[in-house]
Structure to design on (347 residues):
């Protein structure tokens, strides 16, 4: 069982829904706060930040190595330029953590270097998220895991062996509070590339809790993930898409996010549990199942045949499975048309 703040994450728990703030604040702390409040009102359990600066992520260079040209929304820009626009100022973090506590939503972050981990430790973060592109940074994962908090890891760009290395890195630090998120590292991602069965395989392979970090434009993928065992769902959230920014195109607004949350909660109810018990309603509805009825008047001593006994609705007579035992036997009394056949009428 994993605990993030007051939320327990285990086989029977409800899905822990994370609203990813990312760059969707337009470098305005008031927008960040309003976004957090809107996320809570839309049904999110947590808000997640990203803790880095352009200088902790990369270097300010125009060399081709540092230019984005991989078919993304950000092609043509340098890494430094993108991260300078997208980062959440470190001086905001304490205020945002305090505000989250004030409005009653869990807050944590993805650190991208050791100094970010140290900052989040000072703020008493209840958990850590390892971003997909950091899954190969084993020293960073070990440093995160060493803090003894739950570690949520996105697996988007990783091979199976790299995922194994990340999991082992956590366990080497004595931390088994691991949640692996199936992630398609495309922005936005195509539904047909979700491959959610991989999520179940992660659970079977590594004996961890599982979930989804989703970049598709709708919420059919998160809903489907619930049926396949997801216990954490992360989705980018934006107060208003007119704010713009690097992540706006694949983020959900409050109305869309609320619809996703409602659908996820309904999916949880639909999945339910293994249950063969008959409720009162089910028992009442058995009235409409079939049973054996006399469909042609029968005299005392007359034999039962396929012409005078049939399996029809409703369920007031003998079960249809006994028909072959009854055919050829005699009636103990006169039986009128439309009478349910019962054992006391058979000799």
């Amino acid at each position: 069982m994993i605990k993030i703040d007051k939320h327990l994450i285990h086989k029977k728990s409800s899905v822990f829904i994370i609203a990813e703030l990312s760059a969707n604040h337009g470098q305005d702390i008031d927008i960040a706060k309003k976004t957090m409040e809107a996320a809570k009102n839309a049904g999110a359990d947590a808000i997640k930040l990203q803790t880095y600066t352009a200088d902790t992520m990369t270097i300010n260079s125009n060399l081709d190595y540092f230019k984005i040209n991989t078919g993304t929304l950000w092609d043509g820009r340098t890494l430094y330029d993108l991260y300078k626009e997208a980062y959440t100022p470190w001086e905001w973090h304490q205020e945002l953590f305090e505000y989250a506590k004030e409005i009653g939503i869990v807050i944590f972050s993805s650190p991208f270097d050791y100094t970010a981990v140290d900052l989040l430790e000072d703020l008493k973060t209840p958990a850590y998220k390892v971003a997909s592109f950091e899954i190969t940074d084993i020293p960073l994962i070990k440093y995160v895991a060493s803090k003894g908090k739950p570690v949520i890891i996105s697996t988007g760009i990783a091979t199976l062996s790299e995922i194994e290395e990340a999991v082992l890195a956590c366990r080497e630090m004595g931390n088994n509070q691991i949640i692996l998120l199936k992630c398609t590292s495309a922005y936005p991602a195509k539904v047909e590339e979700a491959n959610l069965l991989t999520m179940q395989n992660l659970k079977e392979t590594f004996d961890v809790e599982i979930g989804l970090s989703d970049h598709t434009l709708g919420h059919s993928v998160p809903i489907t993930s619930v049926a396949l065992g997801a216990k954490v769902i992360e989705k980018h959230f934006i107060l208003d898409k007119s704010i713009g920014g690097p992540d706006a195109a694949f983020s959900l607004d409050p109305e869309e996010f609320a619809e996703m949350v409602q659908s996820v909660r309904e999916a949880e109810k639909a999945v339910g549990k293994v249950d063969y018990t008959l409720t009162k309603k089910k028992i009442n509805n058995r009235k409409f199942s079939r049973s054996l009825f006399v469909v042609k008047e029968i005299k005392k001593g007359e034999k039962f045949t396929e012409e005078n006994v049939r399996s029809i609705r409703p369920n007031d007579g003998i079960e249809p499975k006994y028909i072959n035992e009854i055919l050829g036997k005699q009636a103990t009394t006169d039986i009128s048309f439309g009478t349910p056949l019962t054992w006391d009428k058979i000799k």
User: Anything to note?
Assistant: Residues 29 and 92 are 7 Å apart (CA to CA). The longest helix spans residues 254-271.
